[in-house]
Amino acid sequence: MGYEEEYATSGPFTAIFDNSIARVLDQTLIVGNMEQTIAMLAESTNLSYKTVLSAVKKLEEIGFIKASRKVGNAQAYRFEISNNNFQPLLQFGENFQLRRLEARNESILSSNLERKISKSMEKLRYLDKWWEKSLIRLKNESTDLFEKCVRAQQNKDMINATEFANKCADLRRLFLIILRNRIATEKTLSILEKSKDAEDSIRNLFLIKPVMSELEKSSEILREKGKKVNEFVRIVNDLISSYEETHPAVEPKEPYDKAAAFLNEIDSLAEKRMKELPGISTAPQSLKY
């Protein structure tokens, strides 16, 4: 359905009064005082010639429309938009239509944002699974290295024991970094899932925006895995940017305080989970020659 056809049956006056006179009045906001014949108005209002003629006669009686001249065999009419009694009604119609269009645009933007959030959540869930698999692999590697280190110590093979111990330490650091990013992903998903609507989701993400640059620092350490950190940061920043484009004035209060609390919670949870993982939490004893 085109805009003209939609407007013909749901213009501002029609939306309120829903009758043939309202449909004819709606045309005033489009044509102004341009001459219109009954046939022209019938076409633009999707009404019959007879129905439009009846509506025009009633509007003519109250001075809102006036016969002007003959166009061929047809009588032309003009809307009396300069009529002091008519102007307040026209102003009301214009304002009402403007508010309707603004509300419609807001609804479209909100719907688009909701779709983008939904797709972003799918990406974040996939990313969360990827982090989980990486942590399992690292845990298995660390457990294997830990056992090799212990056996080397028992065999008094201090060179290999030291090498295994250093590798264990490197893996633990890597594990902790990935764990922090996984927890950040989990918590971001939780924010999006618990928010009451799309705008609430983005406002809540605003509060942790400063966290993104902090997490992004770990991407260099993770090398190939660092691409996943950048992907996580990009997903969050894209959501915030898409909202900022239409809501430039939005700026949450105390974002850095909230971000600091968010980071502290991530670190606290990461340390707790590290302690619960054998082979990761337990480091080989100090090696002495």
Structural class: mainly alpha
Order of helices and strands: HHHHEHHEEHHHHHHH
- Share of residues in helices: over 70%
Q: How far apart lie the N and C ends?
A: 84 Å
Summarize the structure in words.
The chain is mostly helical and 289 residues long. It has two domains: 3-85, Winged helix-like DNA-binding domain superfamily/Winged helix DNA-binding domain (Arc Repressor Mutant, subunit A), CATH 1.10.10.10; 112-275, no CATH class. The protein has 13 helices and three strands. It has helices at residues 3-10, 12-17, 20-26, 28-31, 38-45, 49-61, 87-154, 158-194, 198-207, 209-216, 218-222, 226-244, 255-275, and strands spanning 36-37, 65-71, 74-79. It has a three-stranded antiparallel beta sheet. A hairpin with a 2-residue loop joins strand 2 (65-71) and strand 3 (74-79). Helix 7 (87-154) packs antiparallel against helix 12 (226-244). The longest helix is centred in the middle third of the chain and has 68 residues, at 87-154.
